[in-house]
Amino acid sequence: LVAMSRLDESPVAKREPREIAREAILLIPNVAKLLARITRDPRVPVRRKTFAAAALIYVISPIDLIPDFVAGLGQLDDLVIVAVALNHLIAGAGRDVVEQHWDGSTDSLDLVLAATEWGTEIIPGPIRKMLPG
């Protein structure tokens, strides 16, 4: 099967979910370094860093909106909160700052940015409006 890429309209081979998951896992070290560097960067607002820290505390905390034992959904709230916090932090840093701190390829950074935007987009509008801007 072939899917069309929105960027250049050229055919792109459809990939297996396992392959995509493996590539995502390989990005974890780069994302961790990016976050460490951004949180130390004085150009990033403190309120953005604070929101990311609060999200990390929530994920580590045993208290969840959806208990972890609920099959399939238990980790979803953690995943969405992490994506929202990353998106918020990265947006506060700005693309130039993020690119300065990113070790991977531009394509892999675009994948990370798309994933964090997805986390924010799936949150219902009224709740999204309550998030810090």
What this model shows, in words?
This protein is 65% helix and 5% strand. It is mainly alpha-helical and 133 residues long. A two-stranded antiparallel ribbon has the order 1-2. Helix 2 runs antiparallel to helix 3 (76-93) and helix 3 (76-93) crosses helix 5 (106-121). It is globular and about 40 Å long.
What summary fits the major beta sheet? Answer: 2 strands, antiparallel
How are helices and strands ordered from N to C? EEHHHHHH
| Number of helical segments with 4 or more residues | 6
What average pLDDT do the residues reach? 81
General shape: globular
Distance between the termini: 40 Å
Q: Stretches where pLDDT falls below 50 for ≥5 residues?
A: 1-5
- SS elements, strand count: 2
Q: Percent helix among the residues?
A: 55-70%
Output the keywords.
133 residues; two-stranded antiparallel ribbon; 5% strand; globular
SSE layout and pairing:
Layout: E1 2-4, E2 11-13, H1 17-40, H2 46-60, H3 76-93, H4 95-101, H5 106-121, H6 125-130
Antiparallel strand pairs: 1-2
Helix pairs in contact: 2-3, 3-5
In short:
This protein is mainly alpha-helical. Helix content is 65%, strand content 5%.
